[in-house]
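User: Sequence in, structure out. Go.
Assistant: Echoing your sequence, followed by the structure tokens.
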Amino acid sequence: MIFIKSSDNDFNEKFQELLGRGKMDIAHVSNIVGGIIEEIKQDKNKALFSHIAKFDNWKPKSDADLKISQDSMSKAYDNLDKKLKDSLHLAYDRIKVYHEKQKPKSWFDTEANGTILGQKVTPVDSAGLYIPGGKAAYPSSLLMNVIPAQVAGVENIVICTPTPDNEPNELLLAACHLCGVNQVYKVGGASAIAAMAYGTENIPKVDVITGPGNIFVATAKKMVFGDVNIDMIAGPSEIGILADDSANASHMAIDLLSQAEHDEMASSIMITPSQKLADAVKVEIEKWLVKLPRQEIARKSIEERGAIIVTKDMDEAISLMNEIAPEHLEVATMSPFELLPYIKHAGAIFLGHNTPEAIGDYVAGPNHTLPTGGTAKFYSPLGVENFMKKSSIISFSNNAINEIGEECALIANTEGLTAHEQSVRVRLK
């Protein structure tokens, strides 16, 4: 873990390294991913079978083997422990309520001269959701992707998830049943993205693809963008923490590790004006590490991509954190809401000492599919709008076109577009 002060002579150099934390060497895998995409486009299911055998260690016997049956999803749900089932229902309900408040509305505005302007909001016809299933399975990611698509009104929802050794995760299947989805395919990686982008004999082509994944998934999403829409190019998970002397060092340590245990490439960064807190958190991290089942992953992440920065004051801490633009940002200070107006860039902001990032991963309600690697400067969390599109509404009366048509014709004439000009003039008195 990097321990630095903003007053250090080499601070700028070390801080620039942190800013590059989420950079993925997409160029390094582009040829591989490009080849996978072309194979899917050309050979469809035949290519899928080959890729599944290569990457997931099993080979489908028929096209039907690609799809997970509704019966298996129903059985997985029925076999859930009651407390876990109740927890999933709680998460589902809270996520749905939150996303229903996001749904954009169509609107119309009528001017006195008879002009009607407006906006018509329509869901996309189909959405493809990628749910990771490599080092771990994430039923929570299923909820976070399916629910906003359902709230948007998407009629055709397609899910792809890898199943190593042809063993689907039972909790993921149960979550599929809870969400009422019926098109779930045992396909992962770049192959899944290509299949949803271009279609195969079984997997239908979709309009938008969402969901997190590794560098191969991210690269594939980038390559198919334009043929379909995507949510974002997401990299390794990360957490940023702004903290002062009121923060509990043990809490800060385990919060940093909550992201470190995701992946060796995850980033955990705390910025504080308190040297005392920084020293205490360093000690607490080691105490927590030895207790974690995923200690090896968390240790590598925290040692190679973790940092604690001590600043001269909280203003400087906020400024640096805005540069980092973390995926998750905890504000563990005495008066967190007073700092909120100064925080410009973060995927999700967790305010107060009792709001760990993990609460947002599962049951708070807001989406946990968030921009990473500094892209929170221009990307937003996954939401209902990712599954909807807008159409402009324009209607002019006779009075309206006569009122401003001359100006329109003049601009068209100036641009040298005569047909544009005349299409207006023939309607003027």
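User: And one key feature?
Assistant: The mean pLDDT is 95.
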